[in-house]
Amino acid sequence: MTPRTLDHTDTLELPVTGDGEFNALHTFWKPSHYATGLEAHTQAHSWRTFRIDNLVVGVRLRAEGRTVIADVYADGDFKPDQRQQLARRLVSSYGLDEDQAAFTELATRVPAMRQALTDLGGMRQSCPEDHFEIAVIALLLQNVTIARTTQMTRNLLIHYGRLVRFDGITLRAWFTPNEIAHVPPETLKEQDRLGFRAKSMPHYAAYFRDHSTEDLQAAGNLMEAVQEIKGVGPYTAAVIASHASRDPAVFGIDVWNRKILAHCLLNADDAEPQTVMARLNELFPGYAGTAGLYLVEHSYLSRPVAPLLAPDQHALARWSASLEQEASA
Fold first, then answer.
1. Collapsing DSSP states into helix, strand and coil, what is residue 221?
2. What b/e string do you get for 146-172 counting C-beta neighbours within 10 Å, with b at 16 or more?
3. pLDDT at 255
4. For the HhH-GPD domain, which residue ranges apply (predicted)?
């Protein structure tokens, strides 16, 4: 598969308006995030793809003080309303308007949080994915290792997503609900190796095809709304709600982060999800989700799942060649 070239079309300058410190590196790059090919990071720059309407958009991000500079590349006419849509999405995706001061004040009082706050202070929750993309990731994370999730994600993106090149780097881009809704469960199971998740994927695609982002944002209770999807239970709904609504009080507990939080907060090897959430809510009222994020990301900081790339053209070329080779296999 030959990558489609995206042309530079705009540059956005987005101020960080939320109170508190801003840590650009750890807002854009999370040590716990597994490699998808949708984004790449060095110490100073991040690259990411987005789907805006029918456009594939690539963005190079960097920060100058409390301003995020986003160089925008697109595969078609980038209209003014799409510019506004992308700007809103970047602000929301990286929490540029969120108040960190209240969480920081709480966190400084909790000994278990002090080192994480020292190393990651100013980190915002980052979620560049839209509601559908978040739901797919949550599905692929169910009861499985990171290696297995990475394999399933790679299969779906290679078979149904896009491969694009901009600013000297190659990245993958998501598929839309329409672009995968027609794929039968048998193909998803056998070709894409989704296992039991194959039966759920068409239901996910159909739901998000028929419910716009605006519809979901207007839902009174997003957790309840997405549980209308066959195959979505409380855990998956919590992941979708916590990331999509950016609710700092919500956190999706799974078998992996549960053990991390039990160790940090309860001095135990493991604990029931309800016990972990109760402790988070006790220590960080109103900010259990943010606290969980800080503790989990800090646990991966010394051994990130997808390390930063070296800041040179050779590293970017190797990255790009690897993605292009996978797409052609």
1. coil
2. eeebbbbbbbbbbeebbbbbbeebbbb
3. 80
4. 140-296
Low-confidence ranges of the chain (pLDDT < 70): none
**pLDDT value for 278:** 96
Token representation of residue 279: 């402790």
> Phi, psi at residue 141, to the nearest 5°?
-90, -5
Does the pTM of the predicted model rise above 0.90? yes
- Across the chain, what does the average pLDDT equal? 92
Distance (Å, rounded) from C-alpha 225 to C-alpha 202? 17
* Helix orientation angle between 131-140 and 234-244, rounded to the nearest 10 degrees: 140
Distance CA 12, CA 61 (A): 10
The CA distance from 264 to 283, in Å, is 12
Residue-level pLDDT at 79: 95
- In this structure, what are the phi and psi dihedrals at residue 299, rounded to the nearest 5 degrees? -65, -25
Q: Are 288 and 110 in contact (CB under 8 A)?
A: no
CA–CA dist 223, 195 (Å, integer): 25
Enumerate domains of the chain plus CATH numbers.
1-318 (1.10.340.30)
